[in-house]
């Protein structure tokens, strides 16, 4: 919530971007490893007007603290979890642990590591880089209100026929001819808002 400062609405937001963290889970019963690599960005909205008008940083969460929190919380995760669940875990931590923080925004981009196939079978601990990245962004308010968006980015697709482009605006600046037959290659980014019920709180 914004503070009033001499008639102006004051809202402070700062954060830490590009926190790279990898987490490996080792199943002792069968020695199968699972892993994720995340690029985490954090933004915190907080009540810290004193930092600007009284030379007092006692209400500021340092960005280095945010970075360290990502590493500690990832290490504490004894079971594999999704980028969405880890983002929610972090955002809820920041809004509950720090009384000054009113809203936490956490975005995660997951690197597309996938298992190597050996003789047609997934390898226990060998991975190769895939294609599209998995994304998750969560906003959590201190009141408990939660917004979650998932997505993919960098999905490259191509078709070799049956792609046309015609009927577009033509004027004195247009030189492109119309066609009903061509190749098409593009890169897809998609986002979707998650809808969940009350039981969602039990996932974290």
Automatic annotation (TrEMBL):
<dbReference type="GO" id="GO:0005777">
    <property type="term" value="C:peroxisome"/>
</dbReference>
<comment type="similarity">
    <text>Belongs to the uricase family.</text>
</comment>
<keyword id="KW-0560">Oxidoreductase</keyword>
<dbReference type="GO" id="GO:0004846">
    <property type="term" value="F:urate oxidase activity"/>
</dbReference>
<dbReference type="InterPro" id="IPR019842">
    <property type="entry name" value="Uricase_CS"/>
</dbReference>
<dbReference type="GO" id="GO:0019628">
    <property type="term" value="P:urate catabolic process"/>
</dbReference>
<dbReference type="Pfam" id="PF01014">
    <property type="entry name" value="Uricase"/>
</dbReference>
<protein>
    <recommendedName>
        <fullName>Uricase</fullName>
        <ecNumber>1.7.3.3</ecNumber>
    </recommendedName>
</protein>
<keyword id="KW-0659">Purine metabolism</keyword>
<dbReference type="GO" id="GO:0006145">
    <property type="term" value="P:purine nucleobase catabolic process"/>
</dbReference>
<comment type="function">
    <text>Catalyzes the oxidation of uric acid to 5-hydroxyisourate, which is further processed to form (S)-allantoin.</text>
</comment>
<comment type="pathway">
    <text>Purine metabolism; urate degradation; (S)-allantoin from urate: step 1/3.</text>
</comment>
<dbReference type="InterPro" id="IPR002042">
    <property type="entry name" value="Uricase"/>
</dbReference>
């Amino acid at each position: 919530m914004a503070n009033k400062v001499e008639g102006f609405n004051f809202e402070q937001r700062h954060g830490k971007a590009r926190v790279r963290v990898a987490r490996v889970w080792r199943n002792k019963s069968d020695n199968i490893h699972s892993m994720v690599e995340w690029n985490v960005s954090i933004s915190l909205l907080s009540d810290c007007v004193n930092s600007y008008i009284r030379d007092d940083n006692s209400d500021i969460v340092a960005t280095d603290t945010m970075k360290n929190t990502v590493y500690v919380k990832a290490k504490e995760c004894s079971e594999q979890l999704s980028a969405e669940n880890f983002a929610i875990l972090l955002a809820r931590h920041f809004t509950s642990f720090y009384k000054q923080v009113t809203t936490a925004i956490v975005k995660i981009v997951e690197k597309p590591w996938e298992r190597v196939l050996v003789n047609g079978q997934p390898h226990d601990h060998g991975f190769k880089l895939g294609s599209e990245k998995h994304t998750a962004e969560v906003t959590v308010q201190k009141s408990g209100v939660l917004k979650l968006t998932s997505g993919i980015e960098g999905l490259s697709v191509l078709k070799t026929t049956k792609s046309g482009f015609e009927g577009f605006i033509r004027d004195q600046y247009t030189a492109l001819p119309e066609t009903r037959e061509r190749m098409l290659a593009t890169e897809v980014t998609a986002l979707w808002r998650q809808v969940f019920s009350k039981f969602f709180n039990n996932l974290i």
